[in-house]
Write a structure and sequence with these properties.
By secondary structure, the chain is α/β, with parallel strands linked by helices. It has 16 helices and 26 strands. Strands 1-12-13-11-10-8-7 form a seven-stranded mixed beta sheet. The longest helix has 19 residues, at about 305-325.
Length: about 525
């Protein structure tokens, strides 16, 4: 599908010719905070107190609270909605320790109007999402998941919501990426329908009810967001998440804020509490959008931290501080775990984790390791490495899984892993004990060649010993070819502990890439 994308400047020039509108709506939005309750450093990992005091850190819930309060004060008397596009869960020790209690507490304190379900809200199954919906007073919505057959979630997640703001009825619709069944852990009782189909149905329902201002609050990623803006009639704006995309009119290499697809503005605000988005929409008397402006706001050290929130975070951090600050080793340089790298090519964090996995079980006859790039959640800077940093990289409490599969299954796994590079999917395979070549321009399913194991061409009929994490071994991220693997054992040590031990044993660890994955 050819998307009709216009820059913000062009879009505004087009809209300037329309009649003056009589209703302005301000949308403040966040997405993909991923439990970054504490401030983050430039690598999106938890920032230490010294660097934060030196003004070198970003975000954290205390800055989010300050900035949202400031915006509300500036916009007093205006029409304002505060929206979150999902994935509050998973990504730091706050989630690992408190399993969603902290995220829900602060969201309720902030006073969001609506939240979209993100895939990571299912990381602890249906029960994890139910914990959130029980703890907050605002609606948590997703139109393309049917939870009516779940005895845990039935009645907890609405398709859409209508909120009256300044005398106007605003419809909020939502959709969750359909591959959540592979990237997280919803039960079989949660039934997904295609995102655009679901959104179109909800638009029709709202329009029949007389609602003529409709916002899509989605957790599907920027590529699908733009396709939705192009194909689903009746949507006035798309406020998205999932792909962690930076929209900005001041930062280099960012998408324009907003990016116009046909006449529909699409926005997102990166991730990890580093930015807040502020989108201003103007509608005429008929409910037609005539203007869309705004930008993301960087939450750097110039944004003061809310003192009460700082105190509460310190209280919550107390029980885990000793573990977080324990030094496990040292690195000679930055270990790159950036999602834009590790989901598209060989990265030094992928090599570290895959090497650590293989090293731990090599004496068991295991020959190869495969780690999904989406399981790597941050980089590690040079110098001392704390357990808190390792757990920020590997927050999912995955265990080592060993198993045996054929060479044919391994090639199928690699094809799956590189099948969605253009979408930045988390299934990209970081490996050890093997090498392969990828042609990303080829059709999915035919992108992998020159697969070598131990320096020899792979034998499709031979059986190989493999190690991964229990999530991948059990079919996560599309690795269904491993579900029926032979001699599978999913109860090895925690992957974060294995990685920490490997860093310690090889200190100072020297990050590297060595061409084990070649991109044509």
């Amino acid at each position: 599908m050819m998307l009709r994308i216009m820059t913000t400047t062009c879009a505004m020039a087009m809209m300037a010719s329309t009649a003056a509108a009589d209703y302005t709506l301000h949308i403040i939005h966040t997405n993909d905070l991923h439990s970054r309750i504490e401030p983050i450093n430039r690598f999106d990992s938890t920032c230490n107190a010294e660097d934060n005091a030196a003004g070198e850190c970003f975000g954290g819930i205390a800055r989010v609270i300050t900035k949202i309060n400031e915006l509300r004060e500036e916009l007093a008397g205006e029409n304002v909605l505060l929206l979150d596009a999902g994935d509050q869960y998973q990504g730091s020790l706050m989630y690992t320790t408190y399993k969603g209690d902290v995220e829900a507490e602060f969201m309720e304190q902030i006073g969001y109007d609506v939240m979209a379900v993100g895939n990571h809200e299912f990381d602890d199954g249906d029960e994890g999402l139910r914990k959130l919906t029980d703890a907050v007073s605002f609606p948590v919505i997703s139109g393309n998941i049917d939870v009516s057959s779940s005895n845990i979630l039935a009645g907890q997640v609405d398709n859409h919501v209508v909120i009256e703001v300044g005398g106007e009825r605003i419809g909020i619709i939502s959709a969750l990426a359909v591959d959540t069944v592979e990237t997280s852990s919803p039960s079989n009782a949660v039934i997904f329908t295609p995102e655009a189909e679901s959104l179109a149905a909800d638009v029709a329902t709202l329009e029949e009810d007389g609602v003529n201002k409709i916002i899509a609050l989605t957790h599907v990623g920027v590529t699908k967001d733009m396709a939705i803006a192009e194909s689903v009639a009746g949507i006035d704006a798309v406020v998205g998440g999932h792909s962690h995309t930076l929209f900005s009119n001041t930062e280099e290499d960012a998408m324009a804020y907003p990016t116009m697809v046909a006449d529909v503005p699409v926005v997102q605000a990166y991730a990890y509490s580093k930015y807040i988005g502020h989108l201003t929409l103007v509608f005429d008397d008929d409910g037609t959008l005539t203007s869309a402006t705004g930008d993301t706001i960087l939450l750097d050290a110039s944004v003061a931290e809310d003192e009460a929130a700082v105190a509460r975070v310190a209280e919550l951090a107390g029980p885990i501080e000793e573990m977080k600050t324990r030094v496990v080793g040292e690195t000679a340089d930055v270990v790159v775990g950036d999602r834009d790298v590790c989901r598209a090519m060989e990265c030094s964090m992928g090599n570290l984790v895959a090497d650590a996995m293989l090293d731990r079980v090599a004496d068991q006859g295991i020959q190869i390791a495969i780690q999904n790039g989406g399981g790597l959640r941050a980089s590690i800077d040079a110098g001392e490495v704390t357990m808190g940093e390792v757990l920020t990289v590997l927050p999912f409490q995955n265990t080592l899984s060993t198993f045996e599969v054929t060479g044919e299954a391994i090639v199928a796994a690699l094809e799956n892993g590189v099948g969605q590079i253009e979408e930045g999917a988390g299934r990209f395979p970081q490996v050890a004990g093997m090498s392969f070549t990828v042609d990303a321009a080829a059709e999915p399913g035919s992108r992998v060649s020159d697969v070598m194991v131990g320096g020899e061409p792979i034998d499709l009929t031979a059986t190989y010993g493999a190690v991964s994490n229990n999530y991948v071994r059990n079919g996560g991220d599309g690795y269904g070819m491993f579900v029926d693997a032979m001699n599978a054992y999913d109860f090895g040590p925690d992957l974060a502990d294995v990685t920490a031990d490997y860093i310690a044993a090889n200190a100072p660890y020297q990050p590297y890439t060595d061409g084990r994955i070649t991109m044509k």
